[in-house]
Write a structure and sequence with these properties.
homodimer; about 290 residues; mainly alpha; Farnesyl Diphosphate Synthase; two-stranded antiparallel sheet; 2 strands
């Protein structure tokens, strides 16, 4: 059993229980609460909250209820982004995590509003759990126009745009903003919250950058390597829809090589830290290699 | 010249300049920046930022660049809410503030993303301007599922629903959440930021509650009293679309009476404060009385 697996099996149920309990108790209107919880409780891997908590662990910070609140706030924000990405005006997806997407299940206005409710509530949980305006600055920058939403905009703007199909710089930037920024933000918040010194912080942020970049390549590979049953969503869609990503740029073999290199690089960044736990997160990617 | 008019003519250009300059300099991608700025710079009254700054003034707090950053953060958030409310899946409006709505001008995905970018950036400005996680808690609660978005959800959920048409309690609650919460939040943030004592804070929050409630009745009256040219958006739409609001419940005359009562009540709450400036905000409503 790897270190990641142990950490995951301990903390995932705690995260899931917190999310379920607090969405039920902290949302006054039960109907919108149910729509929000439908997507949040659809069985994600809780990768970003686990990364946040693992970084605290790496830095020797004790994890209690306040830290779990911050971690779960990150998951609310991640879920909002999935709901909006799936909308008819965006990727127009019917399935996510093996279930109907929010707009397919509840209607389009309801899905937009469930996302619009999860984003500020996620930031609220981070602010209340941390009592730190610095963490709020990190998370809001990570998901704003110079982060996640900016990446989604580039994606929408470039879909079926032949002029960017071979532009590696553009594609790297788009993928980094879309996926990497929130992953980096999760690690950066933990480093600031735990009071890491600047050397520790630099190493962790460098690790997070590689991890975030690898995650996107991994996710693109899942689209072609896995059947939709395994992935819980429709696969083989990216090419069909004219999406430009690292995979369409490099092909499967070269993407796998790039992913292998990134994993080695990510691990090297952890030298000198108690980095065994974080390094073991990278084992997740083995299934597409 | 009333006190409000003086305050407004001094601070509105400062707010507008700050918004224009910082949206241009702080959004990396010029295309999404332009889409965001299109709606932000469409000529709103800047009521919420002015209320925030006026409350600081009332409490004797000096206004500098950091305070203007917080005020402008509130306006970014307000603008996001307008863009999403206008979407085809929501109110499906073609005009706002005399211009095409964001989705009509730029496309639906672009409008959703411009809103999704303005919300976290607004919270970021508030966090950076105030360095206070408490202000972040106030604003995120005000616009989340138990605030503005919750009200928008009730509105969508109840449109063309005859069973709530005569339910004053439901309509009051919906209108309060939709409009009142962000107005109350603007005043509450100023009270906390300026270090108001608990008596001052209670009076200001009571004023904000009445002001927020009156604003919604005022806004509904604008829909029937003004021509669309005066209002800068399509009017006479609420009844046509089966919207339930105080006006459809009480009729025009009774709504005007309710508004007059609320104005008196709001003014009474300011007794004992240096409340002349805030009281003069209520003069705004005279044009529909």
């Amino acid at each position: 059993m790897t270190v990641f697996k142990e950490f995951q099996s301990h903390w995932t149920p705690i995260i899931n229980n917190y999310l379920e309990k607090h969405l039920a108790s902290e949302v006054d209107d039960k109907k919108i609460g149910k729509i929000m919880a439908y997507s949040v409780m659809a069985g994600g891997k809780r990768l970003r909250p686990l990364l946040f908590l693992s970084t605290l662990y790496t830095l020797g910070k004790k994890i209690g209820e306040q830290e779990v609140r911050i971690a779960c706030g990150i998951e609310l924000i991640h879920t909002y982004s999935l709901i909006h990405d799936d909308l008819p005006a965006m990727d127009n997806d019917n399935y996510r995590r093996g279930k109907l997407t929010s707009h397919k299940k509840w209607g389009e206005a309801e899905a937009i509003l469930a996302g619009d409710a999860l984003l500020p509530m996620g930031i609220q949980w981070i602010a209340e759990g941390s009592k730190s305006s610095q963490l709020v600055t990190i998370i809001t920058r990570a998901v704003g126009p110079n982060g996640m939403v900016g990446g989604q905009y580039l994606d929408i703007d470039s879909t079926n745009n032949a002029s960017v199909a071979g532009n590696a710089k553009f594609i790297n930037r788009m993928e980094w903003l879309k996926t990497g920024c929130l992953i980096e933000g999760s690690v950066k918040m933990a480093a600031v919250y735990a009071g890491a010194d600047s050397e520790q912080k630099d190493k962790l942020v460098a690790f997070a950058k590689d991890f975030g970049r690898s995650y996107q390549i991994y996710d693109d590979l899942v689209d072609v390597v896995e059947t939709s049953e395994e992935a819980g969503k429709e696969t083989h869609k990216d090419k069909e829809e004219g999406k430009n990503n690292t995979l369409t740029l490099l092909g499967i073999d070269q993407s796998r090589k790039e992913l292998t290199n990134l994993i080695d690089h990510a691990k090297a960044n952890l030298t000198g830290l108690n980095g065994q736990l974080l390094a073991s997160f990278l084992d997740l990617y083995k299934k597409v290699l």
